[in-house]
Amino acid sequence: MAERVLMKGNEAIAEAAIRAGCRHYFGYPITPQTEIAAYMAKKMPKIGGVFLQAESEVASINMVYGAAAAGMRVMTSSSSPGISLKAEGLSYIAGSDVPALVVNVQRGGPGLGGIQPSQSDYFQATKGGGHGDYRMIVLAPASVQEMASLTIKGFNLADKYLMTSMILADGTIGQMMEPISFEDAEIETYEKPWALTGTNCERKHNIVNSLYLQPDELEKKNFERYERYKIVEENEQMWEEYMMEDAEICVVAFGIASRVAKNAVVAARKEGIKAGLIRPITLWPFPKKAMEAAADKVKHFISVELSMGQMIEDVRLYSGCKKPVTLCNRCGGMIPSPDQVLESIRQAQKGAC
Amino acid sequence: MPKVTFKTDLCKGCGLCVHACPKGCLTIAQDKINQKGYSPAQMLHEDKCIGCAFCATMCPDCIITVEK
Amino acid sequence: MKTVFQKPKSLTDAPLHYCPGCPHGIIHRLVAEALDELGIEGKAIGVAPVGCAVMAYDYFACDMIEAAHGRAPAVATGIKRCRPENIVFTYQGDGDLASIGMAETVHSAARNENITVIFVNNAIYGMTGGQMAPTSLPGQVTQTSPYGRDVKHCGWPIRVSEMLATLEGPEYIARVAVNNVKNVNAAKKAIKKAFQNQIDGKGFSLVEVVSACPTNWGMTPQQALEWVESDMLPYYPIGVYKDRTEGAK
Predict the structure, then answer these.
(1) CATH fold group of domain A5-235
(2) What is the C-alpha R_g of chain C?
(3) pLDDT of amino acid A353
(4) Is A1's pLDDT higher than 60?
(5) Which tens digit of pLDDT belongs to each residue from C190-248?
(6) pLDDT at residue C131, as a whole number
(7) ipTM surpassing 0.90, yes or no?
(8) Which of A129, C34, C38, C94 could be stapled to A87 by a disulfide with Cβ–Cβ 3.0 to 4.6 Å?
(9) B57/C181 Cβ within 8 A
(10) Chain segment A237-279, per-residue pLDDT in tens
């Protein structure tokens, strides 16, 4: 059996990144993700890597842009207000088709909000955040183990598809400790002939750029990018199903909310309610295949979220509005209890009967 | 005798070379228009040229070659 | 016959898009000559700004990247920290470097980031059509200061070189101008030194190049160069403001 170590979620991300070959971290302190920076600050100098505390979130994402363009596995991490500041860089990275890993250990918003866990950056992560037509691969860990494994997966996917992978975590998973293993991680490597390495006077210069003043050229570039995104949508959907075989009430939840929801599903089953759970692991691409299959089988969807209801729009969209969808939520740093979710399941059951 | 060559097609006729020339060798050819639509710089008094390359030093479009 | 002047190899053959008489072309050439003469074209990675020089990536023959407005020093930091063996430079205007990107400028200088920064100060936003810059002179008429820059209303122009020279961090801060042959030749020396410093691992070297914008100043190219002498240089004096190795002059 693989060796297991007890780690904090944020530290698991940092250690996994190093194991994935990331040797460059640029960040700025913000609660509740600062352990990532602290871990990197300690480790990087000892393994020939670079940890640099930037002057701002804006600077840190642009350092990431430079490092990514130089062909390196590179990351930054932040929490909600910091990600808003990084939006500019995220757009440039997308527009320049370079790979990067960005971690958002979400806290409550809007504005300065709070420092308690939240999932209210779902829209920002999955629908944009920065300007222009672009997507990011959004991975939603629900355990400390997944903080590690999805970080490695995120680097692999970023390099494979030349885009940003975002780890959309939350303060709870960032802060909690669980035993994890790094043994099974598969590190993929990709050629980067486009990278800025210096021409060595042997080739034409490489240009990393997102400016296309001719509208037809920009359109072509966007079309090409979206062809790539289509492949991601087709091949990279990830989700977990729990007790979905005969489920009539389908709870959809990701991250920490999914752990609460799972308990509620178990409790509902004890009451004789056929509840099940779909846990999206990729939020973009959203697990459309799972939702489409469920939409034909179940009677009701419940979206459990730590927000005012953001993922619920995708639950409706990808279930084709075939079945009713209700929201069970808390926000601002509050977490729904299993009882609250169970009550939503009971209500759904009443409606479905 | 020094030789000054202009890539006339790329000249924007800004005249900075004309002002820079210490010997007054250059002029803007008002009677000519290049592909870009500018009247280009040209050599007027080749015999006075000392090959100092002041014209090329001030040319913003890097279109002047000087040989000596 | 010997060629005494020709286009440097480190410039591509792409025709420059700049307005007639715009000294950006001169400054591009000086940078390219420095790369050629130091034999570092193959190692160089340039960072283009947002502003008139936005398409500098087409003009320099070395590897290039286009940064967001003001972020060139951060992008350069990312590259240099990954590839310390490469020569990394930014090429930025006054709006880019001294307004929206001031934090990146100051902090990369404070870190003594081993990069070379070419800062083109022509006291105006050129690309967007002539708005007031952080370096526009008091009283200067621009599109957004149509009655002249009123320092009581919008503050004073920033002397970037003097300000950065107060920092412990940077190795070399110099201001040059490109308004005449003598100054262009001096600018070349400063730019070359700023690259040599990077080769020698000395750290952050910034050359502020006082330039002109004939189009948006509403002048002929020659008048604009004369205005540099009469109006710009008194406010922005030429000089070496910091040189850790040799001392400021």
Answers:
(1) Rossmann fold (3.40.50)
(2) 17
(3) 58
(4) no
(5) 999 999 999 999 999 999 999 999 999 999 999 999 999 999 999 999 999 999 999 87
(6) 97
(7) yes
(8) A129
(9) yes
(10) 999 999 999 999 999 999 999 999 999 999 999 999 999 999 9
User: Chain B within 8 Å of C29 (Cβ-Cβ)?
Assistant: yes
Residue of B20, B38, B66 lying closest to C181 (CB–CB): B20
The answer to whether A119 and A280 are in contact (CB under 8 A) is: no
Contact assignment for A199 to C63 by CB distance below 8 Å: yes
**A93 neighbourhood in chain C, CB within 8 Å:** none
Chains with 3+ CB–CB pairs under 8 A to A are C
Which residue in C2, C3, C5 has the most chain B C-beta atoms within 10 A of its own C-beta, making it the best mutation to test that interface? C5
The pLDDT value given to residue A183:
81
d(CA A341, CA A265): 8
Give Dmax (Cα) for chain C: 59
Residue A352 has pLDDT above 80, yes or no: no
CATH code at B27? 3.30.70.20
Give the closest-approach CA distance of C73 to chain B in angstroms: 26
The reply to whether CATH 1.10.540.10 applies to domain A240-352 is no
User: Which residue carries 């922005």 as its tokens?
Assistant: C236
- Going by C-alpha positions, the residue among A151, A282, A278, A193 that lies closest to residue A229 is A282
User: What's the whole-model pTM score?
Assistant: 0.97
Question: Any residues with CB less than 8 A from the CB of C182 and at least 6 apart, and which?
Answer: none
Give the model's pLDDT for residue C249.
74
CATH class, domain C24-243, is alpha beta
Domain with CATH 3.40.50.920 in chain A: 240-352
C26, B60: Cβ pair inside 8 Å?
yes
Question: How far apart are alpha carbons C111 and A55 in whole angstroms?
Answer: 10
Q: Per the CB < 8 Å rule, is A63 touching C78?
A: yes
Domain count, chain B: 1
Instruction: Count how many pairs of residues, chain B against chain C, have C-beta atoms within 8 Å.
Output: 78
